[in-house]
Amino acid sequence: MTRRVCVVTGTRAEYGLLHWIMQDMKNDPDLILQIVVTGTHLSPEFGHTYQEIEKDGFQIDRKVEMLLSSDTPVGITKALGLGLIGFSDAFDTLRPELLILLGDRYEIFAASTAALIARIPVVHIHGGESTQGAIDEAFRHSITKMSHLHCVANDEYRKRVIQLGEHPDRVHVVGGLGLDNIHRLKLLTQIELEKSLDFAFTTSKRLLITFHPVTLENATAKEQMTELLAALEELTDTQFIFTMPNADTEGRIIRKMLTDFVKDHPQSRVYESLGMLRYLSCVAHVDGVVGNSSSGLTEVPSLKKGTINIGDRQLGRIKSSSVIDCAPKKESISNAIQKLFSQEFQKNLTNVQNPYGKPGASEKVVEIIKNTPLNSLLKKVFYDFPST
């Protein structure tokens, strides 16, 4: 008997992680894949990235419009309300037997809330992680409590999910999904990448930069981005590849600053959406990544590249020795860049081990989806650690 399984995706980065799960489900005769897209996928400002999903051969079953032309707290709160309405209608029509959600964004929080009320069991991927500088921290743990099966990246995160009261039998260590892209994609050569980017690599040093707002701090987007750009401006013989931030509070401030910076610096480019293939190919052909994106901690180490992790957005995540932490201040960022470029640091990257495991997570998730009985998932008992 086939099983209807619905995947919700709201951002380009999230879809990049879910891609191989969706592909393996599509190819499995025992599963009926349903896809609901929302968030920035449907926004022209963010590149209409739902089209990338369609180009990959997937059929989108429902589109839930929820993103407003505002990145203020009020705007995002209203977007949550629109999401609840849209997801309730989508789930009522599609009637999935299981829902797959990844991560910690507010779009996914809305989907999990609607699923809970509709009595749809949820598989949550990448729970148990910690990002103390972002509002996503609270969303992630809330989604965990509204979910019924958990696929986590490592043993430390499994312990954390169990600590939240989830039964150990429902918490599975599968590894980081992003590693499957490194394993299953054929990355572009430098010549192919330059052609795709329309950007020739003419300098001896290159950096890939992604910086998102720190959502639990007030009015910091402009100040922190100013410090980062000031540190970059001092570099010589260095090219910069920027990716735009996500749709968090104050994200538009960063977007405007990046656009202005690139206009004045011909050795830099900014891209709305690189897609997973071009993003990972960029990582392979630069000296390191800079910013506060989770990919710098979860995926980049597997490509033996260094990461400069700025500020508190990823505070609490497990990190490899390839990650250099620094404060969101010009001097601290400059010191971190100097360390990144140093011969000793670059030499040690060959020995880096990624704490997020090895490729194969997508296949493990699909097996869990196929083989877990659904008849007793909805009722959960809070799991208490045995008394000592």
Name the beta content range: 15-25%
Largest sheet: 7 strands, parallel
Parts with pLDDT < 50 across at least 5 consecutive residues: none
Order of helices and strands: EHEHEHEHEHEHEHHEHEHEHEHEEHHH
Note down, in words, how this protein is organized.
With 388 residues, the chain is of the alpha/beta class. The chain has two domains: 3-175 and 360-371, Rossmann fold, CATH 3.40.50; 188-351, Glycogen Phosphorylase B (Rossmann fold), CATH 3.40.50.2000. The protein has 15 helices and 13 strands. It has helices spanning 12-26, 50-55, 73-94, 106-117, 136-145, 155-163, 178-184, 190-197, 221-233, 251-264, 275-284, 295-298, 330-341, 343-348, 361-371; strands spanning 3-9, 31-38, 62-64, 98-102, 122-125, 149-152, 171-173, 205-210, 238-243, 268-271, 288-291, 306-310, 323-326. It has a seven-stranded parallel beta sheet with strand order 3-2-1-4-5-6-7, sandwiched between helices. Helix 12 links the parallel strand 11 and strand 12 (306-310). Helix 1 packs across helix 15. The longest helix has 22 residues, at 73-94.
